[in-house]
Amino acid sequence: MGKMWSGRFSENASSLLDKFNASLEFDRKLYEYDIKGSLAHAKMLHAQGILNDKEYQDIVKGMRQVLHEIEAGDFVFDISDEDIHMAIEKRLTQLIGDAGKKLHTARSRNDQVALDFRLYVQAHNEIIRDLVLTLIRTLVDTAEKHVDTMLPGMTHLQHAQPINFGYHMMAYASMFKRDYERFESSFVRNNLSPIGCAALAGTPHPIDRQMTAKELGFDAPTLNCLDTVSDRDFALEMLFNIATMMMHISRLSEELVLWSSSEFGFVTLSDAYSTGSSIMPQKKNPDVPELLRGKTGRTYGNLVSLLTVMKGLPLAYNKDMQEDKEGTFDSVETAEISLTILNEVIKTMTVNKERMEEACKIGHLSATDLADYLVEKCGIPFREAHFITGRAVALAEQKGVDLSELDAKELQSIDSRISPDVVEYLSIRHSMNARNSEGGTSREKTAEQIEKLKNWLKEKRG
Ligand code: ARG
Predict the structure, then answer these.
(1) Cα(430)–Cα(346) distance, rounded to whole angstroms?
(2) Active site residue 277
(3) What residues contact 337, with CB distance under 8 A and at least 6 apart?
(4) For a pocket test of ligand 1, which of 34, 113, 231, 315 has the largest count of ligand atoms closer than 8 A to its C-beta?
(5) Does ligand 1 come within 6 angstroms of the Cβ of 112?
(6) Phi then psi dihedrals of residue 192, to 5 deg
(7) Is residue 81 lining ligand 1, measured as CB closer than 6 Å?
(8) Phi, psi (5° rounding) for residue 316?
(9) Most buried of 9, 115, 144, 156 (most Cβ within 10 A)?
(10) Is there a contact between 337 and 298 (Cβ–Cβ < 8 Å)?
């Protein structure tokens, strides 16, 4: 059998062309969406009197057979068929004859591929959102267990102010909530049906795009066919949403790498998600967070790559757009496995409370509290309070202790206006709980954040 489009050609395609031009190697992933789309299209053609009963039934039966063959591994993928759309149509026609040839009425591969690819992106948008919710749930569960686990909050990777580990987990839960919402809004914005746009300008056949849109789970047909067949914004949004989410995953991974080092020792990753060294028997490496950090790069690449493919294209479809798929598949697959494994890593890691609390005694974390104390309790202007605190820090350094470990007498030797209750003020836990403003790190405010996010999760998950 020659090419489906071979009518106007007198020479056969070269095998080099087949190799270069074909997308079948990768777009075969779209088979189930292609079949689903064709069945909806055939149903509409039948309802509109374009296909008779027998033709429609043959198509339904034939497509069932094609689906079965693909899933059983019996389908012969032949690169000279170019892409999944023509491979399936060819097999259908072999199976059912003339009715197969009528399926492509009022349709072009341009709207067909726009449909299949959009169905793929929408389906995986839902899968990814579900995985994001699972990860948020794990972060919130971890947060709940650790509202009393103190660790140094950092800026510039230097000890800054004491926070609790639950609060730290909730920072990531907040990022992933935004990610979820980005996927959700992309889903809603792009839930429009491309089918029926044909090559670029619509079709003279009396089709019903409302019907196919509804049949396929879209909210409505798209507005303008010229735009639709050359629109890949839905894929770009997916790529951007994934890249941003992977950036969050990468930041958390970076912390896991640091935290699991001997220097920090804040967490111990479970053996099930750690790897060994081929030469150093003592080693336990955090390969999973490292890979998550590393894989983030390719998801950025996939985004920039498609943006670049699209930037110079005149309306409407151009073959350049066939380059939209591999990067998108790669980002989607990377996102799905990354979310799944990160969730396991967090669920199974051990949080080393003592090490975290030990680390709070480094860096005079309650220095700001002493300054605040001097302002509030002693009526000292902030600039002066800042200076006095500096002297107290110097004294602690000189004694080789943390500011929170100085006693009342030592502090009073610096400024006589200080009273003994200062000691309690400088305790790390007091310092944390003092930050009781909305969104702050106090035990109470952290618990409030957890509660809010749990309610949101309930709304999303039912
Ligand atoms: N394999 C093509 C793609 O992925 C399908 C659309 C081809 N349309 C065309 N007019 N050649 O973009």
Answers:
(1) 28
(2) yes
(3) none
(4) 113
(5) no
(6) -125, 145
(7) no
(8) -115, -105
(9) 115
(10) no
Please indicate whether residue 404, judged by its CB atom, sits closer than 6 Å to ligand 1.
no
Asked if 362 and 152 touch (Cβ cutoff 8 Å), the reply is yes
* Ligand 1 lined by 317 (C-beta under 6 Å): yes
Ligand 1 touching residue 225 (CB < 6 A): no
Question: Catalytic: which of 261, 277, 413, 419?
Answer: 277
CA dihedral 103, 108, 112, 114 (to 10 degrees): -170
Whether 66 contacts 88, CB under 8 Å:
yes
Q: What is the pLDDT along the chain (462 residues), one digit of tens a residue?
A: 578 888 888 888 888 999 999 999 999 999 999 999 999 999 999 999 999 999 999 999 999 999 999 999 999 999 999 999 999 999 999 999 999 999 999 999 999 999 999 999 999 999 999 999 999 999 999 999 999 999 999 999 999 999 999 999 999 999 999 999 999 999 999 999 999 999 999 999 999 999 999 999 999 999 999 999 999 999 999 999 999 999 999 999 999 999 999 999 999 999 988 888 887 888 889 999 999 999 999 999 999 999 999 999 999 999 999 999 999 999 999 999 999 999 999 999 999 999 999 999 999 999 999 999 999 999 999 999 999 999 999 999 999 999 999 999 999 999 999 999 999 999 999 999 999 999 999 999 999 999 999 999 999 987
Report CA(235)–ligand 1 centroid distance (Å): 16
* Secondary structure E strands in 228-332: 267-268
**Does the annotation count 185 as an active-site position?**
no
Q: For residue 186, what are its two tokens?
A: 């992309």
User: Within a 13 Å sphere around the CA of 340, how many CA atoms are in the beta-carbon half?
Assistant: 8
User: What is the phi/psi pair of residue 314, to 5°?
Assistant: -70, 155
Task: State the pairing for strand pair 220-221/192-193.
Answer: parallel
Which residue out of 156, 262, 278, 437 is catalytically annotated? 156
Q: Which of 17, 28, 83, 111 has the most ligand 1 atoms within 8 A of CB, as the residue to mutate?
A: 83
Q: Does ligand 1 lie within 6 Å of residue 246's CB atom?
A: no
Q: How far is the CA of 124 from the centre of ligand 1 (A)?
A: 22
